[in-house]
Specification:
By secondary structure, the protein is mainly α. It is built from 15 helices and two strands. It has helices spanning 7-18, 24-49, 55-74, 82-99, 111-134, 139-153, 163-179, 188-197, 203-217, 225-235, 254-272, 291-303, 312-322, 333-340, 345-366; strands spanning 285-286, 323-324. The chain has a two-stranded parallel sheet with strand order 1-2. α5 (111-134) packs parallel to α7 and α13 crosses α14 (333-340). The radius of gyration is 32 Å and the shape is elongated. The relative contact order is 0.05.
Length: 369
């Protein structure tokens, strides 16, 4: 039967806390008892995974041990017992290394264990930042990366985080640290790809991606905008459904955010600079109706669901950029919007007649003789 394997360990720690003075012999006995108890817990955990227990049972079992061990590590009375603390840290390392899939990753981690784990990877982080500073790379990128990562890997910045967040930090630094030993991998493009693949959906990273794009496009001719954006969207990694890896679970995947922003920017550019394939300005299509009648037709089609999920603002902007009417060469989105929300009888009647004629034209094709 599965039970709490840390009860004996807890009993030993309580006895130690009650001892006002411990000689070397007694201290050695306590250390041995703690190590034996930790070894027994490891063996029992291993046996549990090979038992016939269901995953639900194992999840409750290992969740219990994580919570219990997390609580022991948080005990302030152990701050003066480094040997005991190290034994508990190593036991937690073992628990997370082999049985993390059974443990709820949303649980909070004790500050003591966070400090211990980050202290192990802080040297790797400092080496990575040192190598980054030596490179003749994009200064904006180096500044953003340092500002974003410092709070994650410097002990002086640490706060409360979940087990999921701690695991993410360890995995990300393992990858970045590996790159820091190969200078050919320490480029802004290579590191950016790594951050995207690790779904580093940090607001600082998202801001950097946008700034880098705006800087790049500022050096291009307007006729090259569409091709450049299309090529950039094509190389942004596609978000993999089911992937739980992320920096912030409250934000969408960084690939999704960046792709959507690029698509939105492309749509904005199409409205601002409607260029054809040869770079020449597109001629507006002249319509044989008025602005009010155009707005009435848009409303009829919109109410029928013709535009799908496209927003009214985008529809008005597009119509203003692409069409001219029989009386106005240049029309504004605002004038279309005003007419859209204030339909007049004369305009409605005109559109009704247009659509009626369209139906009469289609009838022979719908109901052939």
């Amino acid at each position: 039967m599965l039970k709490n394997e840390l009860r004996l360990l807890t009993k030993i720690l309580i006895q130690q806390r009650g001892d006002k003075a411990v000689d070397k012999t007694r201290s050695s006995q306590i250390s041995k008892a703690i190590n034996d108890s930790c070894s027994q817990a490891r063996e029992t955990w291993e046996a549990a995974t090979f038992s016939n227990k269901t995953d639900d049972v194992l999840c409750r079992y290992f969740d219990l041990h994580f919570s219990f061990l997390n609580g022991l590590i948080a005990e302030k009375s152990l701050s003066g017992c480094p040997d005991v603390q190290n034994a508990l840290f190593r036991l937690m390392d073992h628990l997370l290394a082999f049985y993390s899939r059974f443990i709820n990753q949303k649980q909070w981690v004790s500050p003591g264990y966070i400090t211990y784990r980050i202290s192990l990877i802080e040297p790797d982080y400092l080496h990575f930042i040192k190598q980054l500073s030596l490179l003749n790379e994009d200064q904006e990128f180096k500044f953003f990366l340092t500002e974003s990562l410092d709070p994650l890997y410097r002990i002086s910045y640490l706060g409360s985080i979940t087990l999921f967040a701690l695991s993410y930090r360890v995995q990300l630094m393992t990858e970045l640290s590996g790159k820091s030993y190969y200078l050919e991998s320490m480029t802004s493009d290579s590191l950016t790809s790594t951050l995207i693949s690790f779904n580093f959906n940090h607001v600082g990273f998202f801001s950097y991606l946008r700034k880098r794009f705006l800087f790049s496009i500022s050096n291009l001719r307007k006729m090259s905008y569409a091709r450049y954006i299309a090529e950039l969207i094509a190389i942004v990694p596609v978000y993999e459904e089911g992937s739980s890896l992320c920096f912030d679970s409250k934000w969408p995947h960084i690939s999704v955010m960046y792709r959507e922003w690029l698509n939105d920017y492309r749509a904005l550019l199409n409205l601002s600079y409607p260029f054809g394939r040869n770079g020449t300005s597109l001629i507006k299509l002249p319509l044989n109706i008025s602005v009010k009648q155009l707005a009435c037709l848009i409303r009829a089609l919109y109410e029928l669901g013709f535009y799908g999920q496209v927003s009214l603002t985008a529809i008005f902007d597009h119509a203003a950029a692409a069409f001219s009417t029989k009386r106005q060469q240049h029309i504004s989105a605002e004038s279309i919007s005003n007419a859209y929300y204030a339909l007049e009888q004369s305009s409605s009647l005109k559109v009704f007649r247009i659509l009626s004629k369209a139906l009469d034209f289609l009838k022979p094709y719908c109901f052939p003789a």
